Amino acid sequence: SFSPDEVIRKRLLIDGDGAGDDRRINLLVKSFIKWCNSGSQEEGYFQYQRMLSTLSQCEFSMGKTLLVYDMNLREMENYEKIYKDIENSITAAHEKISECKKQILQAKRIRKNRQEYDALAKVIQHHPDRHETLK
């Protein structure tokens, strides 16, 4: 009645990150109950060893999870640093763009002035110079 996706989704919801912790805890509880109800010393020792093994697996899983957590924290710090660097680069780029716009406006003004000077020079060249005019 359940699709494979639903089964996997439910297992992941129950299991957390998928490390099998719920299964290990259930196994530990069962081993503890068997250990409490063990008749012979040999069976009790076997259940005791089984519990130690399961506890060791749980500790290993917990240690692995803590390492992943620490790694994620360091990665977050790294990403924040990268984010700040990018923000600073964007700010610097905006400032440079603003400065370039000012330079473009100044260059346009200079070009316009030169064109006006050239036009005036052409008009002036059509008229005789002062020496000729005084003669």
Backbone CA Rg: 41 Å
Contiguous helical run count? 4
Rough outline: rod-shaped
**How many beta-strand elements?**
0
The main β sheet shows up as: none
Helix % is over 70%
In round numbers, the mean pLDDT is 86
**String of helices and strands:** HHHH
What structural class should be given to the helix and strand makeup? mainly alpha
How much strand? under 5%
From the N-terminal CA to the C-terminal CA, the straight-line distance is 117 Å
Describe the structure.
The structure is a single chain. By secondary structure, the protein is mostly helical. Helix content is 88%, strand content 0%. The protein has four helices and no strands. It has helices at 4-15, 21-36, 41-126, 130-134. Helix 2 runs antiparallel to helix 3 (41-126). The longest helix has 86 residues, at 41-126. The mean pLDDT is 86. It comes from Pygoscelis papua (Gentoo penguin).
Question: Which terms summarize this structure?
Answer:
135 residues, mainly alpha, 0% strand, rod-shaped
Summarize this, please?
With about 140 residues, the chain is mainly α. It has helices at about 5-15, 20-35, 40-125, 130-135. It is rod-shaped, with a radius of gyration of 41 Å.
